[in-house]
Amino acid sequence: MVISEIGLSLPVLPLPTYPRGYQAHPTPRAADGDKYLLGVGKGDITGPVVEINFAGYADTDQVGSGLRQRLYSRAFIIGDKSKPADRFVYLVIDTASGDTAVRNGIVEGLKALGGDYAKYYNNRNIAVTGTHSHAGPGGWWNYLLPQVTSLGFDRQGYQAIVDGAVLSIKRAHDSSPRAISTHHHDAPALPPRLGRQDDGRAHLVPVHGTSLLQNNTLVAGDNKGVAAWLLEREVTRGTGSLAGTAAEGFVAGFSQANVGTRRPTLENSTCADGLSQSCHGRGPEFRKLDLGVSSCFEIGRRQFAGALSILGALSAKSTPVVGPTVKSFHFYHDMAFSKFRLPDGTEATTCPAALGYSRTRGSGRESGVVRDFGVLRTPSAEQKKCQEPKPILFDVGEMSTPYAWSPNVVDVQVLRVGQLVVIVSPGEATTMAGRRWREAVGAEVRGLIGRDPVVVLGGPANTYSHYITTREEFGIQRYEGASTLYGQHTLAAYINLTVSAAHHLAPDASSSPAPGPSPPDNRKNSLSFITGPAASYARGATARAVFVGANPRNNLRLEGTYAAVERLESGGQWRRVRGDGDWFLVYSWKRKDWLFGTSEVTLEWYTGEDGAAADVQPGTYRFKYYGDSKSLFGCI
């Protein structure tokens, strides 16, 4: 692993909001902290951008129709300089959340690479967090409930996420000397800062990835995708005072934190008919009526501006990360009727997963749905008692036909570098739930760290378990409480599990907690009703493809062609076998919008008409389209 020994520091700045045009200015350097091994990497995870239902809003009408922004996995590796095996990977992926199937695929992919990838990275030290974007293709989930609106499991999209995530880890591992810095909006301080040219930065900022509205059908990373794109662009080739201060390939990860009650819809909600199901939150640019695009950019810009401010001031106003220790632990825990002791000594129980009726009302910022799921399963008396005061709408934790609908087995994971401790949350913790969780872990680890810890929370990660609320929030049963799967003691259980295992973060810790019960792996038995493009055509069939095209009058292509069919040769080269002079290759053009001049091109290859099939040999073919665009000023 070619990664450098770099000192980290914790910024001591809140994350402010800055006006447009704000420029950060470098400041004098603060003291360095201890040295760590660091690496960053980035990989493309963009799945199918059309014909697949989006993940997040669970709206069957929200089906992809194109691409606004590609999706990425951003990997951050931190390791102990003297004990290289003590390291962890923090992944920030542009999806709605982490997921069991995705995480399993990543672990398997690294194992298949062999060598150091298999040696250093495993189920114990990989955290897979999602930015919670609601504008990406779904179908990659391990459990049936979130698969329903996407018509099952989409292998193509799933593999794109896994392959891109593995590639980002590989690039981080293989990278030239790298550096990383992080900051958190809801905490007074967060790490790290480096002692060399900056190559990467991770920010934990709790704000929902719901700036783009429910009727948006273009794939994008939502506001965190905007923030990451702006920061990566600014520090590498921008025009501000910090332009050029980062190395080529700089990676900016904007991770979620305790995001449960933090939404980008800053203006008052509007309701179409007085019912909560029709209510929608409104972003800062809601008057533009552009499906949330302008509001999304503005919320992303604000996160970027805050990060840029921290980047400029971090050298002077930061606290060194000290202590060479890098540790992590991970295990699984079954929440179904699990008993444990509360701090006051009383016994508490968590429940099989269930969603309550208030979930159908929406969050007040996003609309809800009204369906009667009681016909699917009547909850047991024990489950009803356990989930009180939640009236159960959907008893997902006790439904396993044809396979598990929602997780009962959750991931418990904590990471540590120096005095920084990262709680990896499988659910969306509310602001107060996150605060209590951090305080409890901080109190527990203070002794083994030997100084005041800085505890942060990242998620939703690994296995998505909906919301995590306080007991009081659960009791009033609004949207968040109804979406807290495991009952009123969900937060207390997570605190108990992480605190009980905190001794594994000690500098001299040499053991790991028992792995616990493995969650079901539904990848091989997941249903899929997704209609895909034809993988092959029989000789005699008609192959067809549609392109976003240009007006053929822009270029008559004399002595050329508008369309071609090419065949893959044994040497890996493509050879043209048909052009638009061929009777059986048809080129069709259609104007889509007179105002903007957009058009569509359809290519059809008839392989079975009369003599057409005679020279069609079995093999791999592709269409190639040639077009010339015209600008608004008439330039071609």
Describe the structure.
By secondary structure, the chain is an alpha+beta fold. The protein has 2 domains: 7-24 and 33-315 and 324-334 and 407-505, no CATH class; 542-625, Neutral/alkaline non-lysosomal ceramidase, C-terminal domain (Immunoglobulin-like, Sandwich), CATH 2.60.40. It contains 11 helices and 32 strands. The strands form 11 sheets. It has a 5-stranded mixed beta sheet. Strand 4 and strand 5 (63-67) form a beta hairpin. Helix 1 packs across helix 4 and helix 8 packs parallel to helix 11 (490-500). The radius of gyration is 26 Å and the shape is globular. The two termini are 48 Å apart. This is Neutral ceramidase. Its cofactor is Zn(2+). It comes from Parascedosporium putredinis. Zn(2+) binds at residues 132, 208, 428, 467. GO terms for molecular function: metal ion binding; N-acylsphingosine amidohydrolase activity.
Strand runs, count: 32
Evaluate the radius of gyration.
Answer: 26 Å
Summed up, the helix count is: 11
When the domains are counted, the total is 2
* Distance, first to last CA: 48 Å
Structural class, please?
alpha+beta
Mean pLDDT: 83
- Determine the strand fraction and express it as a percent band: 25-35%
Strand order of the largest sheet: 1-3-6-7-8
Q: Which segments are poorly predicted (pLDDT under 50) over 5 or more consecutive residues?
A: 1-19, 22-31, 176-197
What gross morphology would you assign?
globular
Largest sheet: 5 strands, mixed
Kindly state the percentage of residues in helix: 10-25%
EC number: 3.5.1.23
GO molecular function: metal ion binding; N-acylsphingosine amidohydrolase activity
Keywords: Hydrolase, Lipid metabolism, Metal-binding, Sphingolipid metabolism, Zinc
Family: Belongs to the neutral ceramidase family.
